[in-house]
């Protein structure tokens, strides 16, 4: 590390970043980090916390390692560091290909970069972890540091490994500098972070806290009832808003519904969520960053770290899980200091989504026992990897990851590399797992959700003040600009303007089936959305199979037949089909009717028995507990019974009654590609879309 007295901080700030002056508190924070080595910085979103490690990386002996869950932030910062600031940087994360991660590792090991970003889940990988420990790290940055605290609103088990990494780096580098960054830590979370990041000698961590006011942001709460009202309010808000914005949604489905509706209203809005492949996410983010999109409807997979200073509005279309998460997300608006709005569309019934998330995040003692019992060699004496544990247990994949991390942390199991594959085995320790962290976190989340509901109801008074108080800002005063402080300037005509247009659109909306690269399948559609439980969906599901009294319905309900013919006409104009192929089914009573209708409409032959089960799956898909089990249930069980006549490169319309996990549909596509030699498009069309429970049997 350079001698601080010989560093001209302002000169380097101008030279590398083009800034004439530091923002308030930045220079003092950097000086504290350089002199005292351990700092926790708690500042509002948009205060330039990234500079606190970017600038010192120029003076640090060794690499600056940044552990951050914000993949969007990684992409933005790496581009800026490399292209604008001339500071070489790279990242290792799950959104990149294996080749991209390998290139980043080579650059780091060869000393060709100053800053390396790493996603926390990569620390759970033994190979990556050992690689990182072999680097010469001079500054270790824990971004979103509240995640290491059980008392934080966003505690993540993979962040437990960060503390272990800090300890390991300390053994190698006694003078290691450690910087924790967060915008959302109350006093209890702050104390817990400080305890974990304090150095082995017990020297106290320096804590720098800034007032949490965002004086350029006006906060609104708009009461709504149901999805249809939300859509109409969003259309009005987005159409009238200046600049670009983010529409945060609690679910992936929500992002797609909103983007489709607003697009049909001639508003340039796209959806973004973790279900999209890495390339698609990069394209969406880049377009939004460049200002070519009016808004992006996103889950929190977009990350709070998207580095776009001129976001003029943030709308939460569902209740967030906590006041602290809400503050962090709404804080993406107006980072350029110009006026911006943060708006919550408040429907009390939306708490059901967050209640579900809270329940899903709390593993039971029985869940721990189930996972532990399945950490055993198989019949070939091979130890299980992650995929095997998921298939064996049937638990929700997120819960399996959580429990494996916790069992490892508590020393009940350990990770090993066998032929470069990470596997798990038991240790000699036999004590029962301690679930205190999760009971604490469950209590925190319930309390945080109630605070968020109070915010939405208006029971907390001034909106900005209530957020600041929740974050430990004891000097917060009423802001004088929110919908609570200034109801006179708050638009009150939203409810009066509802037309019912969105409700009609929802009733007729089909659901896209996402395209896949492996196997190669084009985007398709489901005609009915099971999430909405509309009368036509209920009628179809009741009539699709013979009932208990032996009554059958060989034809589709008339209204569904109309939807089918309309969608077939749409597809016929956009694709060159050569055949209609149906998935095998023993129970779908309208299978023949539907196949013949498609054949007549498009004018191509239909093949009812081309695809068949060479071996019946051991279970019905709805009886299984997670999608890993569902994939294994149908893998290599299907074949073709005869060759498909030459369709000259034309596509196949693939029909089925409903789609759940999509595993059966993808298996059919694989068979058509490999065995039937289909080279053209394969477009799926199902009558309905349902969602299977994860960790439990049946539909949601």
TrEMBL record:
Keyword Isomerase attributed: yes
Keywords, sorted A to Z:
ATP-binding, DNA-binding, Helicase, Hydrolase, Isomerase, Nucleotide-binding
Transmembrane segments annotated in the record for this chain: none
Write down the superkingdom of origin: Bacteria
- Residue limits of the Helicase C-terminal domain? 233-383
According to its UniProt entry, one GO biological process term is:
DNA repair
Q: Does the keyword Glycoprotein apply?
A: no
Q: What SUPFAM superfamilies does UniProt report for this protein, alphabetically? A: P-loop containing nucleoside triphosphate hydrolases, PRTase-like
Q: What is one cellular component GO term in this UniProt entry?
A: cytoplasm
NCBIfam families on file? recQ_fam
Q: What is this protein called?
A: DNA 3'-5' helicase
Q: Which organism is it from?
A: Desulfonema magnum
């Amino acid at each position: 590390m350079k001698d601080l007295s010989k560093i001209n901080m302002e000169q380097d700030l101008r030279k590398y970043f083009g800034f004439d002056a530091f923002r308030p508190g930045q220079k003092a924070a950097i000086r504290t980090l350089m002199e005292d080595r351990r700092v926790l910085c708690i500042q509002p979103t948009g205060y330039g916390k990234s500079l606190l490690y970017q600038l010192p990386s120029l003076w640090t002996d060794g690499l600056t390692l940044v552990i951050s869950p914000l993949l969007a932030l990684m992409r933005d910062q790496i581009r800026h560091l490399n292209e604008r600031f001339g500071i070489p940087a790279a990242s290792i994360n799950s959104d990149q290909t294996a080749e991209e991660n390998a290139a980043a590792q080579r650059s780091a090991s060869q000393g060709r970069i100053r800053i390396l970003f790493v996603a926390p889940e990569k620390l759970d990988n033994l190979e990556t972890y050992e690689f990182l420990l072999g680097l010469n790290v001079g500054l270790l940055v824990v971004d979103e540091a509240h995640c290491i605290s059980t008392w934080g609103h966003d505690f993540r088990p993979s962040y437990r490994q960060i503390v272990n990494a800090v300890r390991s780096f300390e053994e190698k580098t006694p003078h290691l500098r450690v910087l924790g960054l967060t915008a959302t830590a109350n006093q209890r979370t702050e104390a817990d972070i400080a305890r974990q990041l304090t150095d082995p000698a017990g020297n106290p961590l320096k804590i720098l806290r800034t007032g949490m006011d965002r004086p350029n942001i006006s906060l609104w709460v708009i009461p709504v009832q149901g999805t249809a009202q939300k859509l109409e309010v969003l259309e009005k808000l987005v159409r009238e808003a200046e600049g670009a914005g983010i529409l945060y949604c609690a679910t992936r489905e929500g992002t797609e519904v909103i983007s489709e509706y607003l697009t049909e209203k001639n508003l340039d809005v796209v959806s973004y969520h973790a279900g999209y492949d890495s390339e698609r996410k990069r394209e969406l983010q880049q377009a939004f960053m460049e200002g070519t999109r009016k808004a992006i409807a996103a889950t929190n997979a977009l990350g709070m770290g998207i580095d776009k200073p001129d976001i003029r509005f943030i709308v939460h279309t569902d209740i967030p899980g906590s006041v602290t998460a809400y503050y962090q997300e709404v804080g993406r608006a107006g980072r350029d200091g110009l006026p911006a709005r943060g708006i919550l569309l408040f429907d009390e019934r939306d708490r059901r989504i967050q209640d579900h998330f809270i329940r899903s995040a709390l593993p039971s003692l029985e869940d721990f026992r189930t996972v532990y019992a399945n950490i055993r060699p198989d019949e070939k004496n091979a130890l299980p990897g992650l995929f095997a544990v998921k298939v064996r247990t049937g638990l929700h994949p997120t819960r399996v990851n959580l429990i494996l991390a916790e069992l490892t942390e508590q020393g009940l199991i350990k990770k090993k590399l066998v032929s470069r594959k990470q596997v798990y085995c038991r240790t000699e320790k036999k004590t029962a797992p301690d679930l205190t962290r999760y009971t604490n976190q469950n209590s925190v989340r319930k309390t945080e959700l109630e605070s968020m509901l109070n915010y939405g109801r208006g029971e907390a008074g001034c909106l900005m003040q209530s957020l600041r108080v929740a974050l430990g800002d004891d000097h917060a005063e009423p802001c004088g600009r929110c919908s609570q402080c200034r109801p006179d300037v708050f638009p009150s005509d939203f409810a009066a303007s509802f037309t019912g247009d969105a409700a009609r659109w929802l009733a007729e909306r089909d659901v896209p089936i996402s395209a896949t690269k492996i196997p190669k399948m084009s985007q398709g559609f489901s005609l009915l959305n099971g999430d909405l439980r509309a009368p036509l969906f209920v009628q179809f599901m009741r009539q699709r199979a013979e009932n208990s009294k032996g009554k059958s319905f060989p034809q589709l309900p008339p209204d569904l037949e109309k939807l089918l013919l309309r969608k077939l006409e749409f597809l016929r104009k956009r694709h060159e089909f050569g055949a209609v192929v149906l998935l095998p089914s023993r129970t779908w009573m309208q299978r023949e009717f539907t196949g013949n209708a498609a054949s007549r409409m498009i004018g191509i032959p239909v093949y009812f028995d081309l695809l068949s089960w060479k071996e019946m799956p051991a279970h019905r898909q709805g009886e299984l507990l997670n999608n890993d089990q569902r994939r294994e249930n149908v893998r290599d069980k299907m074949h073709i019974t005869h060759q498909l006549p030459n369709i000259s490169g034309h596509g196949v319309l693939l029909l089925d009654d409903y789609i759940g996990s999509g595993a059966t549909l993808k298996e059919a596509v694989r068979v058509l590609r490999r065995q039937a030699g289909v080279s053209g498009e394969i477009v799926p069309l199902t009558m309905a879309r349902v969602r299977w429970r994860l960790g439990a049997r049946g539909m949601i």
